[in-house]
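Question thread 4412

I'm putting together a teaching handout and wanted feedback from people who do this every day. The idea is simple: show students a protein as raw sequence, then show them the structure tokens that encode its fold, then repeat with a second protein so they can compare. Below is the first pair exactly as I plan to print it.
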Amino acid sequence: MFADFLLIALIVICVITDLRERKIYNKVLFPFLLAGLVLHSVFDGIQGIGFSLAGTAVGFSILLIPYLLGGMGAGDVKLLAVVGGLKGVVFVLTAAVYMAFAGGIMALIILFFRKGALNRLRQIGMFLGGLRSGMKVPLGLDKEALNTTYPYGVAIAIGALAAIVFPSGGVLL
């Protein structure tokens, strides 16, 4: 239960900094990771430390490949690692599923409600129409639309909160 309060405090702080500055700070993450290690070691001893370290490793691993491919910031990777360190492997895996849904929905909303959304929709329609008729129509999206970043810490926060509310996966899992 105390880990839930720590997690909610962490998420609130990280969402605010991610929305304002597009940064998730190590000076916020590392104390929460340390608190999770101490909390689990006090209540469960060496098994608690293993629980926390395993959660950290799994959380870190989930977003490592997208980070290495340049699709995500290091703060997002570390945030999910700390979520795993606070709540464990099963929780971080459940949160990652919710996070993926939230991140996909956020990406679609940002893509379609930015400047030039109608032009993007038209280009996608022409591309799909070309595929149906066997023609190769280039997908004429501008580089700016493809390189737009968004605060993925928000998606991680939504995923973690959903995993608290629906710990067994609810209707999605």
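The second pair follows. I'd like the answer to focus on this one:
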Amino acid sequence: MTEAEVRALFTRSDGSFLCARWGRPIVPVVFGVEPETLPVIKGALEAVVLLAGHKMAETDPELGANLMVFFIRDWAELPRVPDLDRLIPDLATLCARLAAAEANQYRIFRFDPDGAIKAAFVFLRMDKHLSELPAETLALSQAVQTILLWSDRAFADASPMGRAGGVVILRPEVAAVIRAAYDPTLPGCAQDASHALRLIARVSMQH
């Protein structure tokens, strides 16, 4: 990868640069899936967390769970979830907007004072496209898109996933960026585009 390609992964559509990683162990909870699917989702998340060199935990002392994943059939279901509107202001308005856009996924992040990720909410509306994906592929893709705060355009043109020997895997260059972003010598959050130079230096050292 080039420095420009790495920079683009964290440059938002308004032109601002923002790269943030989790600053605390990840504690996931999943709603709306069959019990047999849970190990698949947790396994994908564990694999990506291990890749990053980060940690998971049984509970977050402040929040209990800090990564909430909701599988739904329709955006209208979310406003009916008890207390969710307390965690996500203007939830009904957001869901109406997502329904109008026919969106099938949405992620919201919360941050600690230093800018590192504190919590994330992942909403997946299981439309025809998402329902046709194998559970492993969908779970791995969501884990990758939640382990860092990527640009809103990061994977618009190319999925973070690829194929090797008929198996769906995380693209090696994306894996390398995740590992680089979790280098303990780097800050948990960076808003200066020069951060991409520090990332690409660490990506290059992995090869």
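Top answer:
Good format. For the second protein you could add a caption like this: The radius of gyration is 17 Å. The first helix runs from residue 3 to 9.
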